Amino acid sequence: MKIYAIVGAGGFGRELMPVATEMVSAINQNDKAKVVFVVEGAVEEKNINGYEVISDDDFFELNNEEKFFNIAIGNSEARERIAKKFIDLGITPFSIMSHNSLIMDNNDIDLGSVFCPFTTVTSNAKIGKFFQGNIYSYVAHDCVIGDYVTFAPGAKCNGNVFIDDHAYIGTGAIIKQGKSGAPLRIGKKAIVGMGAVVTKDVPDGITVIGNPAKPLTKKS
């Protein structure tokens, strides 16, 4: 029996589970396989939307021949922590891709990525570990996306853009196309707010909002 864990049973986990189940069924037609929710700590509900829920400790103790995992948690630092824990225990990451996602040619996509329905990656993009592309988001040509980056629904990243690790691109945000050899850059742990239109580089750790996007400043 192969067992696939979706770590996290919140809203995003519940959205992702049917996508993962369909994909797992398609690739394991002649093998026994199932998908379960895995949560850290005590299990409050043993069944969510018809899917079994088990604790991470119980998952680790299963004696299945093969175990796989992905992480349905928006917080990128939590994703990194959980990924390291599972990988250190010998559990294999698997990527999740909806049947109606479109991944074109010559892309380099690392393990643990998530592509929700109607997502697109065009050509010659490089995407790091445990990327989350929510519904209707896209990555265009010649982009380089770091590890643990999150695209909220409808986030649009045009060509020749570099996005560093742990950045968050908000719902409906648009990142202007950069130039070949001089990509537009989104810094490490930067946040691009909902609906923002990014036309200039965003430094590490900065939150930008608006059209054109500008740093968020707190009123005194």
Give the tally of structural domains.
2
Principal-axes geometry comes out as: globular
Q: If helices are DSSP runs of H or I spanning 4 or more residues, what is the number of helices?
A: 3
User: For the record, what is the CATH homologous superfamily label of the largest domain?
Assistant: Hexapeptide repeat proteins
* CATH class group of the largest domain: Mainly Beta
In short:
The protein has 220 residues and is α/β, with parallel strands linked by helices.
Quickly list its features.
single chain; alpha/beta; Rossmann fold; UDP N-Acetylglucosamine Acyltransferase, domain 1; 2 domains; eight-stranded mixed β-sheet
Question: Can you describe what's shown?
Answer:
It is a single chain. The protein has an eight-stranded mixed β-sheet with strand order 7-10-13-16-19-22-24-25, covered by helices on one side. Strands 3-4-2-1-5-6 form a six-stranded mixed β-sheet, with helices on both faces. Strands 8-11-14-17-20-23 form a six-stranded parallel β-sheet, with no helix packed on it. It is built from three helices and 25 strands. The termini are far apart. The radius of gyration is 18 Å and the shape is globular. The chain has helices spanning 11-27, 56-61, 76-88, and strands at 2-7, 33-39, 47-48, 51-55, 66-71, 92-93, 96-97, 102-103, 108-109, 114-115, 120-121, 126-127, 132-133, 138-139, 144-145, 150-151, 156-157, 161-163, 168-169, 174-175, 184-186, 191-192, 197-198, 207-209, 214-215. The chain folds into two domains: 2-94, 3-Layer(aba) Sandwich (Rossmann fold), CATH 3.40.50.20; 95-209, Hexapeptide repeat proteins (UDP N-Acetylglucosamine Acyltransferase, domain 1, 3 Solenoid), CATH 2.160.10. Helix 1 links the parallel strand 1 (2-7) and strand 2 (33-39). With 220 residues, it is α/β, with parallel strands linked by helices.
